[in-house]
């Protein structure tokens, strides 16, 4: 058993050192969303949903929109809004046209097969249950940054 542990330890150590030398960070963003948004533009999609997301022409408001604006401010970024249906916003997330989408999506969203979903938050003003934000798949650093911000702002 001791020989087996040694035989496994050396290759695993070598892999860990190689990854550390490559500058790999965990969680990572293969598409670099967090780095691109920080100090730049957060491309956000909005689908109207009661008090959570209001849309008046090109103006987006509501409690979720305010949270996105606060997130952008915390990253020294500005928000550019895209208004559309949930399906259109999911398409935009898949193509990389937007960085996140808000609306009345819940933790039971049918879109979770196509996009990433944040943890559910039920303390957002206007929420009638657990609300989630939609993000591009695989952008784990970006998701961690968003959930960290939401945890500070609206978690109980």
Descriptors:
two-stranded antiparallel sheet; 40% helix; alpha/beta; globular; 156 residues
Instruction: Provide mean pLDDT, rounded.
Output: 88
Spatial gap, N to C terminus:
48 Å
Counted beta strands:
7
Tell me the major beta sheet. 3 strands, parallel
Number of helices: 5
Low-confidence stretches: 12-21
Q: Rg, please? A: 19 Å
Structural class: alpha/beta
Secondary-structure element order, as H and E? HHEEEHEHEEEH
Helical fraction equals: 25-40%
From the spread of the alpha carbons, the general shape counts as globular
Strand order of the largest sheet: 4-1-5
Strand content: 15-25%
Can you walk through the features of this model?
It is a single chain. The protein is α/β, with parallel strands linked by helices and 156 residues long. 40% of the residues lie in helices and 16% in strands. The chain has five helices and seven strands. Strands 4-1-5 form a three-stranded parallel β-sheet, with helices on both faces. The chain has a two-stranded antiparallel sheet with strand order 2-3. Strands 6-7 form a two-stranded antiparallel ribbon. Strand 2 and strand 3 form a beta hairpin. The chain is globular. About 6% of the residues have low confidence.
In short:
With 156 residues, the chain is an alpha/beta fold.
SSE layout and pairing:
Blueprint lengths: L1 H20 L11 H5 L3 E6 L7 E3 L2 E3 L1 H12 L3 E6 L2 H10 L4 E3 L13 E2 L16 E2 L4 H15 L2
Parallel strand pairs: 1-4, 1-5
Antiparallel strand pairs: 2-3, 6-7
């Amino acid at each position: 058993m001791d020989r087996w542990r040694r035989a496994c330890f050396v290759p695993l150590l070598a892999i860990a050192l190689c990854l550390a030398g490559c500058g790999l960070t965990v969680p990572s963003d293969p598409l670099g969303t967090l780095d691109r948004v920080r100090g730049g533009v957060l491309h956000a999609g909005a689908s109207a949903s009661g008090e959570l997301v209001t849309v008046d022409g090109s103006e987006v408001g509501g409690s979720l929109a305010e949270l996105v604006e606060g997130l952008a401010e915390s990253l020294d970024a500005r928000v550019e809004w895209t208004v559309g249906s949930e399906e259109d916003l999911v398409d935009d997330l898949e193509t990389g046209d937007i960085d996140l989408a808000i609306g009345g999506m819940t933790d039971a969203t049918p879109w979770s097969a196509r996009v990433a979903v944040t943890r559910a938050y039920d303390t957002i003003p206007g929420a009638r249950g657990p609300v989630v934000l939609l993000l591009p798949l695989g952008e784990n650093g970006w998701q961690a940054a968003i959930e960290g911000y939401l945890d500070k702002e609206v978690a109980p």
